[in-house]
Design goal:
Keywords: Lyase, Metal-binding. InterPro entries: Aldolase_TIM (IPR013785), HMG_CoA_lyase_AS (IPR000138), HMGL (IPR043594), PYR_CT (IPR000891). Belongs to the HMG-CoA lyase family. It is an enzyme of class 4 (lyase). The chain is of the alpha/beta class. 43% of the residues lie in helices and 15% in strands. It contains twelve helices and eight strands. Strands 1-8-7-6-5-4-3-2 form an eight-stranded parallel beta sheet. The longest helix has 17 residues. The radius of gyration is 17 Å and the shape is globular. The protein starts with 6 loop residues before the first strand and ends with a helix. The model has no long low-confidence stretch (mean pLDDT 97). The structure holds 3-hydroxy-3-methylglutaryl-coenzyme A (HMG) and magnesium ion.
């Protein structure tokens, strides 16, 4: 039996926008986050406190966090690769900080400029500080189903880093398909392996849709008991350090699937479609969401 309800973590304002080449104003980002909270999302990944040299689009993160309307009960999450990022996150009033590592050594080097082992040491300080400040701590694990630089990644490699993130005290761990190469059976194998290390209720599926497999992978994850999923409104996104990777699975498509399955999300699909159309108009292109575009055309 599938879960009766799921948590959707909207990552569009961060993962979705981080790779956009032209600068998007803080006002537009703020409007997007506000529209998403109004649509009923209870967890919105809103900003990223990384080096602006590495990811220029996220340089407005402090302004964005200061400008959004804080809706009660909503967790506004931000990425924090190190203590510098953590301090900025605390100053900005983030509710949850995200440390982000990789199951592949090669990607760890390209994305955060250090080995997996070094990243865990950097994250340890952030984890301790998060607990001391009563902040939720999430761990995100890139390349759990394949790496753009080293190719295959074994379920054991994923489980190994999951254990290390667990030991740092993560409340939730994202099993991420950075380049969207995972397929349904593989997804179940990896998810079932990591469940031996971390409670299934705290594991999430973060699927990019490069190869069109994300919805199938979500369904496959539901079948093995995963009940948290990440998605980007309008299918925004890509990772600057994973060339050619497309956006996250589109939130509208995920909501349409859940609605059809009778799985509760607490999110208003029509308002989400409007948020997707809003940001797509600002970016000057059509939303990538099939369901979103079909519903918008009605
Ligand atoms: P580094 O160069 O090794 O760091 O970068 P450093 O400590 O030597 O510092 C170098 C410079 O960066 C210094 O400035 C620091 O102050 C500055 P300078 O003295 O040269 O002027 N700096 C910072 N500035 C602002 N905020 C900070 C910060 N830290 C250092 N937090 C670092 C290491 C991790 C900082 C760098 O590699 C970086 O910023 N990487 C970010 C990569 C990134 O954001 N990738 C995308 C997000 S991950 C993702 O999308 C995957 C995910 O969606 C899951 C999936 O799909 O797989 C989560
Ligand atoms: Mg991602």
């Amino acid at each position: 039996t599938l879960p009766s309800s799921v948590k959707i973590v909207e990552v569009g304002p961060r993962d979705g926008l981080q790779n956009e080449a032209t600068t998007i104003s803080a006002e537009v980002k703020i409007e997007l986050v506000n529209r998403l909270s109004a649509a009923g999302f209870i967890n919105i990944e809103s900003a990223s406190f990384v080096s602006p040299k590495w990811v220029p689009q996220m340089a407005t993160s402090t302004e964005v966090m200061a400008g959004i309307e804080r809706k009660a009960g909503v967790i506004y999450s931000v990425l924090t690769p190190n203590m510098k990022g953590f301090e900025a996150a605390i100053a900005a009033g983030a509710d949850e900080v995200v440390i982000f590592g990789s199951a592949s050594e090669a990607f760890s080097q390209k994305n955060i400029n250090c080995s997996i082992a070094e990243s865990i040491e950097r994250f340890r300080e952030v984890a301790v500080a998060a607990k001391a400040n009563n902040k939720r701590l999430r761990g995100s694990l890139s390349c759990s189903f394949g790496c753009p630089y080293q190719g295959a990644v074994s379920p054991e490699a994923v489980a190994d880093v999951v254990q290390r993130l667990r030991d740092l005290g993560c409340d939730e761990i994202d099993i991420a398909d950075t380049i969207g190469v995972g397929t349904a059976r593989q997804v179940q194998t990896v998810m079932q392996r990591v469940m031996r290390e971390f409670p299934v209720s705290g594991l999430s599926g973060h699927f990019h849709d490069t190869y069109g497999q994300a919805l199938a992978n979500i369904y496959a994850s539901l079948e093995v008991g995963i009940s948290i999923f990440h998605s980007s409104v309008a299918g925004l996104g890509g990772c600057p350090y994973a060339k050619g990777a497309t956006g996250n699975v589109a939130t509208e498509d995920v909501l349409f699937l859940m609605q059809g399955l009778g799985i509760h999300t607490g999110i208003d699909l029509d308002k989400t479609v409007d948020a997707g159309q809003f940001i797509s108009q600002h970016l000057g292109r059509k939303a990538v969401s099939r369901a979103g575009n079909a519903l918008a055309a009605k």
